Amino acid sequence: MRAVVHTETGPSSVLRVVERDLPEPGPGEVRVRVARAGVNPTDWKFRTAPQLAYDEVTPGQDGAGVVDAVGEGVTGLAVGQRVWLVLAQHGRAHGSAAEFTVQPADRVVPLPDGADFDLGASLGVPAVTAHRALTSGEGGPTRLGPGALTGRTVLVQGGAGAVGNAAIQLARWSGATVVTTVSSPEKAALATAAGAHHVVNYREGHPEEQILAVAPGGVDLVVEVAPAQNNEIDLAVTRVHATIAIYANNGGDELTVPLRSTFSKNLRYQFVILYTLDEALRRAAVEDVSAAVAAGAVRVGADAGVPLHHYALDQLAAAHDAVQSGVVGKVLVDVADW
């Protein structure tokens, strides 16, 4: 089979296409024939880390395809079943950027009818991250679904990004009023297509005033991509007992928090990363995301606010570069076309 690997860390040029033996699933494992692999910022960040965790790595946390073989003891998955992958390369040497990948059965999720492989490969990291952020609020729901966030106002900072888009779609499906910030009219159009009720261009005027005009009593939850830049705004627009869920460090690696204005609101900061997420929370996210997909509430494509950018398997380096340079939308690798 063909796979993309790297044996050292560094720029995208370390990635190369190789031929490898077909891997066999062991007990509790599933082999998936990959149709699409998703590319996320975590992939290039892992590739450029100071040290490689394995002698050889196949990148890719997300993907979609068809079950090709099942190992002993696997239930609920069958050969020929369409599936999506979550955390395919976490704690393992080989992820989704290959024609076949062997995964623990709990990282292989049935793909709902009507969902194509583009959507399946776009879920994983963005949607599960968004789910955790949306369910981290004080007194809020631990699961998402119709009505779960009714009466709550969610602010999604950076709504044109992959996680931001997923947060908009999942929050709207769950009944929230969704406000989002963007940096341009083009991104505003994408956030609106994703389902945001109110879109604020933070480069025009005072975003705090625009947000509070929508939510005079303050927002209940902030899904935050750039805390170092946005914390002042977040403090200004949150209500008492609100939660700021932080999933990235865009715009700076250090967050300074003014104590008096923060604890006077009984604010809660919830940091979100999937790699150390409690297993029960990950399972709940996977179930809810699949339900949202089945309901047609999570979509991809320009008409859903997520332009798709397709690359061939031997163009994975270019795909990594596109994500690292901040391309708007979802980057997918077409591993197979069937």
TrEMBL record:
Residues 10-333 form the Enoyl reductase (ER) domain. Keywords: NADP, Oxidoreductase. It holds the Pfam family ADH_zinc_N. Its EC number is 1.6.5.5. It comes from the Bacteria. One of its GO terms (molecular function) is quinone reductase (NADPH) activity. Transmembrane segments: none annotated. This is NADPH2:quinone reductase. It comes from Nocardioides ginsengisegetis.
